[in-house]
Design brief:
The protein has 8 helices and 5 strands; from the N terminus they run H-H-H-H-E-E-E-H-E-E-H-H-H. The chain is an alpha+beta fold. The chain has a 3-stranded mixed beta sheet. 34% of the residues are buried. Zinc ion (ZN) binds next to helix 7.
């Protein structure tokens, strides 16, 4: 039992009842770029300035940067579509003391289903999304050896990597895989299941989490913009060439 930290969600039976009572799927998706078909824009806007505090902002940008690129982790989460779930969860996070130092994050209450009408991507968001002010997410200074040894998967809980894994774990509760099942099963009542879930997320995202130390969010965005601009320029050039060819063909038409 290496991972002593239980940061799962505490689901209740209300959830299935809620689906029966309210089977309609919400179409109003928070934080999406539905109105734009511009490939230069990420699938969901960057909400850094609206995120609670520096620690939350940092993990938001880390997870956003992972999903912005095509990699094993982003594919596990459904690609760039997952950005709107990051936005949805991050904008609903509240910092609160849960009086249990073992809990890092908690999602609870009823949940709502969302569907992006353009992409068809679906996910859920819980009513309450809490980061424990007294938990491993915020413990930057460990005063005892026991506290220092708390781990999230392979990482210390209060490190950049540990926080990212905590956030990715919670996000995996909100999205389904190709088989129609949640990426990880509910684990609010089972520490063992929570640990297995963390392992599954880490198995898919380990490389990206380990790369975070060398990732700079603003540089990543600038690089993406530059590459998209180059692609757009090449596309325009091709269109221009096609127009020239069409004109040439027209000029060569026999009268
Ligand atoms: Zn969990």
């Amino acid at each position: 039992m290496r991972n002593k930290i239980h940061f799962g969600i505490f689901e209740t039976t209300i959830f299935s009842l809620f689906l029966l009572v309210n089977p309609s799927i919400r179409a109003g998706v928070p934080g999406t770029n539905d109105s734009t078909g511009d490939d230069a824009e990420p699938r969901a806007p960057i909400l850094s300035e609206k995120i609670g505090d520096a620690v939350q902002r940092s993990v938001y940008e880390d997870v956003y940067s992972i999903f912005l690129e095509s990699n094993n982790c982003s594919r596990f989460f459904g690609g760039e579509n997952a950005l709107e779930v990051v936005n949805g969860l991050s904008s609903m996070l509240t910092r609160k003391n849960l009086n249990d130092p073992q809990v890092g994050m908690m999602m609870t209450g009823t949940y709502s289903n969302f569907k992006n009408m353009r992409t068809g991507f679906t996910y859920r968001l819980f009513e309450k999304n809490i980061i424990n002010a007294d938990g491993p997410f915020y413990h930057e200074v460990c005063s005892t050896s026991r506290e220092c040894s708390r781990r999230i998967g392979s990482f210390l809980g209060f490190t950049r990597e540990g926080r990212a894994l905590m956030m990715l774990h919670e996000l995996a509760h909100l999205m389904k895989g190709a088989d129609g099942k949640w990426l990880i099963p509910d684990d609010g009542k089972s520490e063992r299941q929570s640990e297995a879930n963390t392992s599954k997320v880490e198995d898919n995202c380990s490389a990206q989490i380990r790369q975070l130390a060398s990732t700079h969010f603003t540089e990543l965005l600038a690089a993406r913009k530059a590459s998209t601009n180059t692609e757009a320029a090449l596309k325009n050039r091709t269109n221009e060439d096609l127009t020239k060819q069409a004109l040439l063909a027209e000029l060569m038409l026999p009268y």
